[in-house]
Design brief:
Blueprint: H1 2-24, E1 41-44, E2 47-50, H2 66-75, H3 97-108, H4 125-128, E3 147-153, H5 160-174, E4 179-186, H6 192-198, H7 200-205, E5 209-215, H8 224-240, E6 255-259, H9 266-279, E7 283-291, E8 296-298, E9 305-306, H10 333-340, E10 345-349, E11 354-358, H11 360-363, H12 381-391, E12 397-405, H13 409-419, H14 422-427, E13 445-451, E14 454-459
Parallel strand pairs: 3-4, 3-6, 4-5, 7-12
Antiparallel strand pairs: 1-2, 6-11, 7-8, 7-11, 9-10, 10-12, 13-14
Helix pairs in contact: 2-8, 3-5, 3-6, 5-9
This protein binds 2-acetamido-2-deoxy-beta-D-glucopyranose (NAG) (4 copies).
């Protein structure tokens, strides 16, 4: 009896952890909005729990900031009378000067050990050397910005030394003048924004291009997918600003590296960029994981779809349970085989915590992040981006299973120990980079999952091209 109570408590605790994960990553996690409705239950291994009503209770309705209006002008004719301020939202100060300085120092110095973070092994610089852009002395970089790092972040102060630290490391490696970093922060109360703002002089000194804005767009209120799309577009806006045209010529092959609030090592990011180049891919994605129970579970199941069947990476039966999460690619032998061999494989859609994709269709004004249209499957903005990529002939989308990510330093360490650090996997004896035989056509139909309880297949190109 006692054991059963203990077990029940343990199961309840695990579910709480899952819930907090899901609710915590609200800025970027791609869960169906209905999933967040109070009372909706998740089931894992024969236990279940309801989303507490308080977890998602709406606060006062915030208006969309002028920052939002600024991006709206690029996607629609909505122009406001007032010029948006450089920072629509004032940045509150919650950290002591000392602590803020300590965070900045930790981000800029990968060897700084004062603050615990996921420890990343030294990586094989030879593997990525060819990606680096030399700063030609005198000649001010004729090739423009080749690597555009983009993030939307909320309330993740503790992760900054690892996450932004790794990006800074990658920027140093790739050539600071060939890189830009663009961050949109929103609705943090833990000092995330002020640390990111305080980074500016350091990044200027590094001679890289830094865009940072705080926005009060809140995906928890109103149309969640539209707002997430808006935030993602905001992060890309500097690249699409006509004033910056020279920095981002469409022919420059600029790679956007769009990253969630994950504990990533520098080589995780470099590997995604390398594989995009090596495979000739339009987009490469990592694998992201969450610890539901003892074993890690693939996280981005709402977005990711296989190439063969347009299906989810693991099966979620109509009751919504994740019991089959261990059985990845159960109905696609090719993906399954490549996954276990640590070789990249083509998919219909992915995001999975971190991506590297071509900026071209954005620069050519063919795509933006968007919400579903009327009559189109209710789905997340990353899946819609992949759909639009396919539509415009950018269907070389691949998952790179040597890059495995989690959403905190501790869990990041756990997942790296379970799956292997990228450097170790690609450096393993007998591992050789394998190419992909790209398939030119997407699956005829793709699984639509407005929520786990409602699933059906829909034509991959439903409502295309839109208006
Ligand atoms: C500064 O950091 C220390 C230790 O990390 C913490 O105990 C303290 O509360 C922080 N102070 C502020 C003002 O953030
Ligand atoms: C542009 O990127 C593609 C794919 O990554 C690559 O095959 C091609 O060589 C690149 N072109 C230039 C000019 O760098
Ligand atoms: C569910 O239980 C099975 C069998 O005990 C176990 O192998 C699996 O890892 C569990 N799932 C999770 C997410 O922990
Ligand atoms: C959608 O794709 C199918 C092939 O999967 C094709 O037959 C059909 O013509 C396409 N529809 C549009 C509107 O392009």
């Amino acid at each position: 009896m006692r054991r059963e109570v203990f077990f029940a408590l343990q199961a309840a605790f695990l579910l709480l952890v899952v819930l907090s994960l899901y609710l915590g990553h609200d800025q970027l996690s791609q869960i169906a909005p209905s999933f967040l409705k109070p009372g909706h239950a998740i089931h894992v291994n024969a236990t279940s729990s309801s989303v507490p009503a308080t977890a998602h209770s709406t606060q006062h309705v915030e208006t969309i900031s002028s920052t939002a209006a600024a991006i709206a002008t690029t996607t629609s004719a909505k122009v406001t009378g007032t010029k948006p301020a450089d920072n629509a939202v004032p940045i509150p100060t919650v950290l002591s000067t000392e602590n803020r300085t300590a965070y900045v120092a930790a981000i800029m110095n990968p060897d700084e050990k004062k603050r615990p973070r996921l420890e990343c092994p030294a990586f094989n610089t030879k593997r990525y050397e060819y990606l680096a852009v030399q700063d030609d002395e005198g000649d001010s970089d004729p090739s423009g910005i080749q690597y555009f790092f983009a993030l939307d972040l909320r309330e993740c102060l503790y992760l900054l030394p690892r996450l932004i630290g790794s990006i800074v490391e990658a920027i140093r490696f790739l050539g600071p003048q060939a890189c830009a970093l663009s961050i949109i922060e929103g609705n943090s109360h833990d000092g995330t924004a002020e640390v990111l703002e305080a980074l500016r002089p350091e990044l200027d000194a590094l001679t890289t291009t830094y865009y940072f804005k705080s926005s009060d767009i809140n995906p928890k209120q109103g149309d969640r997918i539209s707002k997430l799309a808006e935030l993602r577009n905001l992060a890309l806006q500097p690249m699409l600003d006509p004033k910056n045209e020279k920095l981002y010529p469409a022919e420059a092959n600029t790679t956007v590296i769009f990253i969630n609030d994950v504990a990533a090592c520098a080589d995780d990011l470099l590997e995604l960029v390398h594989q995009r180049r090596f495979l000739g891919a339009d987009m490469t994605c990592a694998m992201d994981w969450t610890y539901v129970g003892r074993d890690p579970t693939f996280y981005d199941v709402w977005i990711a779809r296989t190439l063969a069947g347009g299906d989810s990476f693991f099966e979620i039966p109509p009751d919504g349970n994740w019991n089959s999460a261990w059985n990845l690619f159960w109905n696609e032998p090719t993906a399954r085989e490549r996954f276990f061999a640590h070789q990249p494989f083509q998919v219909f859609s992915c995001w999975n915590g971190a991506t590297a994709f071509t900026a071209k269709p954005f620069l050519e004004k063919k795509v933006t992040f968007r919400a579903p249209r009327k009559g189109e499957c209710m789905q997340g903005e990353p899946q819609l981006l992949c759909k639009d990529f396919w539509w415009h002939g950018y269907g070389k989308i691949a998952v790179v299973p040597t890059v495995n990510l989690e959403y905190s330093d501790e869990k990041g360490k756990q997942i790296k120990e379970a799956k292997g650090f990228t450097s170790n996997l690609v450096g393993a004896e007998g591992h050789k980079d394998d190419t992909i035989q790209w398939q030119a056509s997407p699956p005829e139909k793709v699984k639509c999952m407005p929520d786990y309880g409602h699933q059906f297949f829909e034509e991959w190109n439903k409502t295309q091209p839109g208006v």
